């Protein structure tokens, strides 16, 4: 089947879309990337989303409008990318997270907007959506869900005696860690580490430092000097010491988080961005060392920030840092790829969560399906998930 995966992450910078051909060959799922790209939100819509997300207030009236507008934008992106690819059989849409409700270390609810009916109506094909809620209902965090792809892709990359990890650097940094076990199944852990680009984006947007709303290539950070006192305050946040599984988002790591750490102290824009970039580097690097990771395959928008990548490398000496490009998965479209895979799994009656990653009570088939132009016809469920995923180039 040819699947179109869609997602806008916590950075709110764009809708990522990728078209993937997925074919089962024995116990291996073969994937071929047909096309894809990132399409920015219209500036007005992005501004409304930022204003509605925590810690800002949001009315039912505004949320309803945003659900429609985001759904229409996703539909427009999907139609364009699908046409360029020569059509798709189905769509898997993550939508836009507006709130991830966590209390006492437990996820109690999650909301992603972007009404899938607009996509189904525009393309005429089925749409799988609302992929996080079932895991939360099964006492999981609903995040991270990307480990389904991480585990299969790392298996497809070949056996190794080292601890390897897939690291995503979006608004939030998350990691899937795979530790081999002699003669048995590998040990898998996955969780949200902390902020990646999210705090930098909040400052850049809040202070109007760039028209795109993020520090492109790390140019602002490169011009600043790290403030050691602020860095120490930020590193003392208790989230980093919580045990896995754990999840977080912009309802916790937002502009107010930075302002509270500053405590009313004025700081140069570039110095603040440099400090927040170093924060991500330190938090991620320390976690790689603490969990004895030998090799990392990174993805996400943070891979384009040379200052951030250097900060991670400096904080994790001896760790080999590569990107998912080595596996044939575009770094900026990896999450969209993962949600295309999750949609494929749902379609074939297979679980899309990794309980060891989310803390759910067991594997669950994720999401809801919106029919396309015709009746919904699902195939016979497959007996089990493939053991590995290989990208055919």
Automatic annotation (TrEMBL):
Catalytic activity, reaction form: 1,6-anhydro-N-acetyl-beta-muramate + ATP + H2O = N-acetyl-D-muramate 6-phosphate + ADP + H(+)
EC class (word): transferase
Keywords, in A-Z order: ATP-binding, Carbohydrate metabolism, Kinase, Nucleotide-binding, Transferase
Residues the record lists as binding ATP: 9-16
Pfam families per record: AnmK
MF term (GO), any: phosphotransferase activity, alcohol group as acceptor
Superkingdom per UniProt: Bacteria
UniProt key word S-adenosyl-L-methionine: no
Pathway(s) this gene product operates in, as recorded in its UniProt entry: Cell wall biogenesis; peptidoglycan recycling; Amino-sugar metabolism; 1,6-anhydro-N-acetylmuramate degradation
The keyword NADP is annotated on this UniProt entry: no
Known EC number: 2.7.1.170
GO process terms (BP): 1,6-anhydro-N-acetyl-beta-muramic acid catabolic process; amino sugar metabolic process; peptidoglycan turnover
Family: Belongs to the anhydro-N-acetylmuramic acid kinase family.
Primary role: Catalyzes the specific phosphorylation of 1,6-anhydro-N-acetylmuramic acid (anhMurNAc) with the simultaneous cleavage of the 1,6-anhydro ring, generating MurNAc-6-P. Is required for the utilization of anhMurNAc either imported from the medium or derived from its own cell wall murein, and thus plays a role in cell wall recycling.
Name used for this protein in its record: Anhydro-N-acetylmuramic acid kinase
Species annotation: Knoellia locipacati
């Amino acid at each position: 089947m040819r699947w179109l995966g869609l997602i806008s992450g916590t950075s709110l910078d764009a809708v990522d879309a990728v078209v993937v051909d997925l074919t089962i060959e024995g116990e291996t799922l073969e994937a071929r990337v047909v096309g894809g790209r990132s399409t920015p939100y219209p500036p007005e819509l992005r501004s409304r989303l930022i204003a509605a997300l925590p810690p800002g207030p949001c009315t039912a009236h505004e949320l309803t409008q945003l659900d429609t507008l985001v759904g229409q934008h996703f539909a427009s992106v999907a139609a364009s990318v699908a046409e360029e690819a020569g059509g798709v059989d189905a769509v898997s849409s993550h939508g836009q997270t507006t709130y991830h409700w966590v209390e006492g270390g437990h996820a109690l609810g999650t909301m992603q907007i972007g009404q899938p009916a607009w996509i189904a109506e525009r393309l005429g094909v089925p749409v799988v959506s609302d992929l996080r809620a079932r895991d939360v209902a099964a006492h999981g965090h609903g995040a991270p869900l990307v480990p389904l792809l991480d585990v299969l892709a790392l298996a497809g990359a070949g056996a190794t005696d080292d601890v390897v990890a897939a690291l995503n650097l979006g608004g939030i940094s998350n990691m899937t860690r795979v530790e081999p076990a002699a003669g048995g199944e590998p040990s898998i852990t996955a969780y949200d580490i902390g902020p990646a680009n999210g705090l930098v984006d909040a400052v850049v947007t809040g202070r109007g430092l760039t028209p795109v709303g993020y520090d492109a290539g790390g140019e602002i950070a490169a011009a600043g000097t790290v403030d050691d006192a602020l860095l120490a305050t930020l590193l003392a946040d208790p989230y980093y010491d919580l045990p896995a599984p754990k999840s977080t988002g912009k309802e916790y790591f937002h502009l107010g988080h930075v302002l509270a750490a500053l405590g009313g102290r004025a700081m140069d824009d570039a110095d603040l961005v440099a400090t927040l970039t170093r924060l991500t580097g330190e938090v991620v690097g320390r976690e790689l060392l603490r969990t004895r990771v030998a090799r990392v395959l990174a993805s996400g928008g943070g891979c384009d920030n040379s200052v951030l990548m250097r900060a991670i490398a400096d904080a994790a000496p001896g760790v080999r840092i590569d990107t998912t490009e080595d596996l044939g998965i575009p770094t900026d479209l990896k999450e969209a790829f993962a949600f295309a895979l999750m949609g494929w799994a749902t379609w074939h009656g297979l679980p899309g969560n990794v309980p060891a990653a989310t803390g759910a009570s067991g594997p669950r088939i994720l999401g809801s399906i919106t029919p396309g132009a015709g009746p919904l016809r699902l195939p016979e469920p497959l007996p089990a998930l493939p053991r590995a995923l290989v990208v055919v180039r």
